Amino acid sequence: MKKPSLTILGCHSSIPTNKFHPTAQILEMKGFSFLIDCGEGTQVQLKKAKIKFNKIMHIFISHLHGDHFFGLIGLLSTFHLLGREKSISIYAPKGLKEIIDVHFKWSYTKLKYGIDYIELSSKKLERIMKNEKIEVFSIPLKHRIYTNGFLFREKPNNKRKLNMEEIQKIPDIKIVDYQNLKLGKDFKTHDGIIIPNWKLTFDPPKILSYAFCSDTSFYLPIIEHIKYVDLLYHESTFLKKEENRAINTGHSTANQAAYIAKKAKVKKLLLGHYSNRFPNLKEFEKEAKKIFLNVEASEPLKTYYLE
Amino acid sequence: MKKPSLTILGCHSSIPTNKFHPTAQILEMKGFSFLIDCGEGTQVQLKKAKIKFNKIMHIFISHLHGDHFFGLIGLLSTFHLLGREKSISIYAPKGLKEIIDVHFKWSYTKLKYGIDYIELSSKKLERIMKNEKIEVFSIPLKHRIYTNGFLFREKPNNKRKLNMEEIQKIPDIKIVDYQNLKLGKDFKTHDGIIIPNWKLTFDPPKILSYAFCSDTSFYLPIIEHIKYVDLLYHESTFLKKEENRAINTGHSTANQAAYIAKKAKVKKLLLGHYSNRFPNLKEFEKEAKKIFLNVEASEPLKTYYLE
After folding, report:
1. B171 with B189: CB under 8 angstroms?
2. Is B6 in contact with B270 (CB distance < 8 Å)?
3. Which residue from B32, B41, B85, B84 is spatially nearest to B59, judged by alpha carbons?
4. Backbone angles phi, psi at B129, to 5 degrees
């Protein structure tokens, strides 16, 4: 199984340009491709990143400001034009369904695939999706309109992994014994020798998790929801010198994003949602590094691995 | 005054890619900048073409298929973010206002500028805009949903232009005489000599006109509306070998576009709205040239002059 990865499609705020793509990213985890936000031009960015459209079964929209979803109607239309039949789930605040429906109404389009809208309205952490491998939670953020972050966690699997090399050395161990070994039990041979479990198995794989927090003011309640995540994307629309502007617009600075990452003891921080007024992304990184060392300023079409 | 020009922002159909931009173009005529259609990514193309956003006062939307207007909501939002105060007029079929309104409702946006919607519903040629310099007409096209082309014509100005070099040689001619000269009258000096008007004036400037016809089936009634235009953009989604596909989808072939151009005796034909299945645009040009010589396959970010 591939390591989970996050591919940035766009990491700028508000006005798209040839270089500045609005928010969109793909999380690939346990064989799933989750699209998170979908600013204008996302379908072109997906193509550049060589993401297969047909693998996208779940789309998460944080809020209904244009730089986070104006590319969605185009993507959904393209799915239709390409003959998609597999239905898709869209997790978004109230309003998105009305917006999408009115487009298809006026183009007289009868979609060939279904859209399952999961309307988000919780003001607390809430599990919004689960399957056998992954759980997704909405994280309440603080912005000018109702906005969620998202927490993606692999499902706990506490079973130990078999160490086949060692197991094959002991002819007494049969396939029927494997289940007990996975559960951590020691093995007793026919002549009464106890072989400790740790000699026959490996520790279960670590559960990996990713948290997406954009757009948000500097908001301490986020911390408890994202504790110890392996990767945190936290918006940093501004630098510290524009902190007042951040407060007035419901955004954060790089300095504040780093503070949240440090307090939540996350493994790695990615910055993004940059204001176009700062062309040098390294400035964001430099500012955050003073508080939290393992930080990168995310860049479009770059992939970051969870490990 | 600059010569009227048409700048192509996008000339492909349906699915946008990094190279294939959906329909959008800017007609610059008599100091006005008219935006015609607005597929996804148009605001980025406008920036690349160095078109000043603030000069756009009129937007014409042919029909409500996504590749002709999915970039509009992003552009209108950007106008707002840039602090635009000048109102804008949008000429479009019924439905567009509802689509735009629902976006701004859910983002709780109160626009700083006004939008004046002119809802198009005529099934005949109809004048939809006029000012002191230009008239615009909707041209009924034949497509899967209600669709208009647009005809842009400079206003007739039959007044002759003064030939100041000649006029200054004749001291008898005073400023009060200029009006009569512009109207084509001869001049009589104080000693009774008649100076013919053509010696003192130039012919009035030619009236230039541009017709945009996309999307449409091969539709002969277009011809009478676009007779003698200086530039015709007529869609050619397909080549002749895919004529059946053109019929089934409500589009035209390059061959058919050329036939329309020839019958309408236009000065120059531009092809566009190409299907992505034909990567070599010269094939369209080659096919059309067999019927109509002065033809070009339009290309993004290229400017074509009316003369």
Report:
1. no
2. yes
3. B32
4. -155, 145
**B1, pLDDT greater than 80:** no
Residues 6+ apart with CB under 8 A from A171: none
The pLDDT assigned to B158 comes to 80
CA distance A236 to A218: 10
Helix (H) or strand (E) holding A234: strand A231-235
Q: Is a pLDDT exceeding 70 seen at residue A199?
A: yes
Substitution target from A38, A53, A107 for chain B, most B beta carbons within 10 A: A107
> Which residue type sits at A241?
K
- Per-residue pLDDT of B247-275, as tens digits, reads 999 999 999 999 999 999 999 999 999 99
Q: What mean pLDDT do residues B153-168 have? A: 91
Spell out the residues 6+ positions from residue B241 whose beta carbon is closer than 8 angstroms to its own. Answer: none
Helix (H, G, I), strand (E, B) or coil at B262: helix
Q: Is the reported ipTM for this assembly greater than 0.85?
A: yes
Please answer yes or no on whether B40 and A74 come within 8 Å at the CB atom: yes
Best mutation target, A14, A15, A65, A72, to test chain B (most B CBs within 10 A): A15
Domains of chain B listed by start with CATH number: 5-157+205-305 (3.60.15.10), 161-202 (no CATH)
Annotated binding site of A for Zn(2+): 63, 65, 67-68, 143, 215, 273
The tens digit of pLDDT for each residue in A220-258 reads 999 999 999 999 999 999 999 999 999 999 999 999 999
**Span B29-55, mean pLDDT?**
96
- Catalytic residue flag (residue B67): yes
Measured distance CA(A306)–CA(A7) in Å, rounded: 11
Q: How far is residue A172's CA from residue B251's CA, in Å, rounded to a whole number? A: 74
Output the pLDDT for position A19: 86
